[in-house]
Specification:
Shape: globular
Radius of gyration: 19 Å
Number of domains: 1
Strand content: under 5%
Helix content: over 70%
Order of helices and strands: HHHHH
């Protein structure tokens, strides 16, 4: 009886752990898409502006929403200068336009 109870408890813990990981990934995905949607409003075509302008807009959006959206602070740390340079190059391969879904999938937030 103890073995069956232990097995059921273990199975529940594994299922709970898996569901929490999926939920947090979903939350990060939503925040990521929101974040890049806001960046897109400020800077729809990155190819015309350059990476310095992208960094400036990203910093502006981070500053604007970090206090109201807690997960955004974590996301802003993820998109540091090195990551932004790589994201900028990725955007250029995507017609130079910001596509939140593509960027978030590329950065493994979704």
């Amino acid at each position: 009886m103890k073995f069956i109870f232990s097995a059921i408890l273990f199975a529940c813990l594994v299922a709970l752990s898996a569901s929490l990981n999926a939920d947090s990934k979903g939350l990060l995905c939503s925040v990521c898409k929101f974040f890049w949607g806001e960046v897109k409003k400020e800077l729809p075509v990155v190819a015309d502006a350059g990476d310095a302008e992208l960094k400036q807009v990203v910093n502006k959006v981070c500053t604007k929403f970090t206090n109201s959206i807690p997960l955004l602070g974590q996301l802003c740390k993820t998109f540091g200068n090195d990551a932004l340079e790589e994201i900028y190059q990725f955007i250029l391969t995507e017609d130079g336009k910001i596509n939140p879904s593509s960027i978030c999938a590329h950065t493994k937030q979704c």
